[in-house]
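A protein record in our archive is deliberately plain, so that people and models can read it alike. The tokens are whole numbers drawn from a learned vocabulary of local backbone shapes. For reference, a complete record is included directly beneath this paragraph.
>
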Amino acid sequence: MKNIFVFISIILITLQSCNTSEKKENDNATLLSDPQYAASSAFLTSDENNIPMISWIEMDSSDNKNFYFAKWDKDAQNFSSRKTIPIEQNASIHAEGMPKFAVKGDGTIVAIYETSIPSETNRFGLSDIKFVSSTDEGNTWTKPQSIQSDGLQIGSRSFSGILRLDDGEVGVSWLGTNPDKKIGGRPVKFAKTNSENSFEKEILIDSTACECCRTALSSNGQGEVNLVYRDLLPGSVRDISISHSKNNGKDFAESVAFSRDGWVIDGCPHNGPAVVSHQEKTFVTWFTAADEKGVFYAELDNNNQITSKIQLSQHGNFAQLALMPDESKVIVYDEDYEDEGTKYNKIIVNKVRQNEVFEKEISTPHTYGTHPAIQVATEHDVIVAWEDKNKIYCRLVKTNSIQNLKKKPNDEIHSNSTTAQLFEKNTSH
């Protein structure tokens, strides 16, 4: 009888362990979302004290969209109990325009999400970016408002990026509506919050960009802001451009196309860039399907010119990156592969240090991880979150464990003077 009780106890402990962390599907990762419901749209940021925070979407049994967020508990090495951010049920939850949030310097949480209204004149409907805010750590929220109130909605705002700026306010970038449909493309716009927790008037960054790739923002700690996006250049070239602000987003310089992939495609790849900055250096990662296909990483100088460009993966997608205190860069992306006729996706983390690239796979083989996000957790750790079969997983990754040397400096695609010789400086259009 005693042996039977021992056997039953072992079974119960085993079942509890599997249910808690889904180790059979993603070993060493924590299941964050409710396994009963379909989850997506993992997004990572930090609060005013640089404590990591995460948000995601769940669809309940009645197909209601629920927007959750949680804060990192460094003692428990996990996220705390989730809280709800109220959103409208016509909110869009696609990966390139997912709901997301940022925390102002005074602790105010500003959450944004896209809404969609069916339209006979637009097969994608009319979209707007709404925002809600909370001054009490997410316990109560304001009523939703449009990020730019301009009366009757006649166009679309979508594919947004969001960031806490160095002055403590929150900046948002997005794609607007081109009034001249013959030209094609969409304008890139930017607006920031003020002390009254509303948004100031929008700024036009570029009149013609790629139609459906996310925009991205970074700040360098000195009041300078970078806005990076997939551009639409003459000849339907879908390369990456950057615009720079020296005054916390009050105005921006002319955009510069820097990736120089030469990717010509008659359509939008739905795959935007990511950017981080520190002092006079900017670091960008993006996807292209040009002759050299895959995920790339580049370092830019203070003139937005490439000083180093590296191909990280031929099969990677949806890259994001983080800048560590020691100035090493950690890039995460999903990579597709095939094994015995079955296709899978794995989550790959790269560390770039002095143009050496180190690699580590952090998902379990034969799973379907995609759309990862990344956030600095400590001096030597990052948090990575991703979606796998309608579930959200997260994992704390120690950067010193990323040890597999993948590329050496002489494996770079272009570097320093070589880039300057190959690529002339581009002006805005």
